[in-house]
Amino acid sequence: MAYRQGAAEATPGYVPSRQLTSLLDQVSVGGLAVVLETLLMFVALAGVFNQLQDALDYIWGVEPKPRDGLLSRVRRRFLSILGVLGMAFLLLVSLVLTTLFTAGGQAVFSHVPGPEIVNQLVFRGVSFIAVTLIFAMILSC
User: Fold this and answer.
1) Where are the beta strands (DSSP E) in the chain?
2) Interacting residues of 110 by C-beta distance below 8 A, sequence separation 6+
3) Half-sphere exposure (Cβ direction) of 21: Cα atoms closer than 13 Å
């Protein structure tokens, strides 16, 4: 064990990374920093959405909407951000369900009598239908 630890310490970057992790362990983040980071993230996302909308309006030749008050723009951007976060959540659910179907389906279909090819076809069909329904939910948003 001592040989492995000595070999790890001899690799380049081991000592600086160890120092960095010990330094990060000493730093504590306050609640104000978390609130400011979250606020900054939403401001940056709103800027990205503004640029994206301006670029797409220019590409498609659409007249931009008249700039309303600040509250109206914040509401519109907030709804856009919530839509993106909702899509991200549904994609995460899709990933988890696909993993569960794969793990559970292989465990279930391995005990079902019959040819292996039939079991695989049924499993793939059920997985395809489930993923199709999940993506239908995503696209209906």
Assistant:
1) none
2) 119
3) 5
pTM, to two decimals: 0.47
Q: d(Cα 56, Cα 32) in Å, to the nearest integer? A: 36
**Residue 84 CB contacts under 8 Å (≥ 6 apart), including other chains:** 45
CA distance 95 to 130: 11
For tokens 């793939």, name the residue: 124
- Return the exposure string of 63-95: e unless at least 16 CB atoms fall within 10 Å of the residue's CB, then b: eeeeeeeeeeeeeebeebbeeeeeeeebeeebe
pLDDT digits (tens, 9 = 90+) for 58-84: 999 988 777 777 777 777 777 777 888
Report the pLDDT value the prediction gives residue 7, as an integer from 0 to 100: 54
3-state DSSP: the chain helix, strand, coil percent, rounded to 5?
85, 0, 15
With contact defined as beta carbons under 8 Å apart, do 93 and 137 qualify?
no
* Nearest by Cα to 73 from 105, 37, 33, 46: 46
Residues 19-59 pLDDT 10s: 767 766 676 667 787 788 888 887 887 788 788 888 888 99
